Amino acid sequence: MINIGAGAMGELLIYILGVLFVVYVGWGLMLYILQPKLLYVPMRELLYTPAELNLEFENIIFKTADGLRLSGWFIPAQNSQFTILFCHGNGGNMMHCLDSIDIFHNLGLNCFIFDYRGYGESGGKPSEEGTYLDAQAAYKWLTEEKKVPPDDIIVFGRSLGGSIAAHLAGRNKVAALVIESTFTSYADIGSRFYPYMPVRWFARFGYKTIQSIKDIRCPVMLIYSRDDEVVPFEFGLELFNSANEPKEFVEIFGGHNDSFLVSGELYKNAWIKWLKFLEERREQSMSRPAL
Question: The CATH number of the domain where 149 resides is what?
Fold first, then answer.
């Protein structure tokens, strides 16, 4: 039997701890460098359009404040009362939102969806400030080129798009904001996936949805699923508690990427109820005597 002395055991322990420390630091450094690629997962090819659903649409090209050309679709609906300004998630491009576009169209809503810089046919490379500029440019096109009144615009964002939508709604006049399956902040969602890393120390992005929502004065609806495997249901409750009145919380079911489809009529009925509320709110506002 080999007898290892206390000194040798100490040296071995120090060596093991040193190796673990190097591996930990190396893994942290790799995560820091790869953050943009982990957050933004764009797809360039637009293989499908609303024409696949027999929907009429306009191909839109518009420019951002920093001179980039972005691509979008405007899908009109007959006798529409509101227009959806659609901020999609971090993966793919706007063609992956055709199911949602179809739902909105069947609800009688116009829809303007666009690709962030670096996604689809939009130029440039994605960044946090860039996505904010992109959403602002889409709002500007909708209000100035398409002449849609701000009071007719519902800003909608899913997942990462919800944070971008909240940022936009906090800085512009809109009829309402709808957030679906969105995290409270980039650091919060990072801590969920990497609880063993000091994510808040080296987070390269903010996307502080919970801060943005506090500045919003329009009606807010939040839609979340307890089955969401990416964004915790509790994040939705935190955002709801931080939002100003009037506000609505809708619980659906299904995974992060398919809950709006899996929930079916539950999801659509929540929108129908919300649209009725917005219409009644607008009618009441118009009926009030001017001061």
Answer: 3.40.50.1820
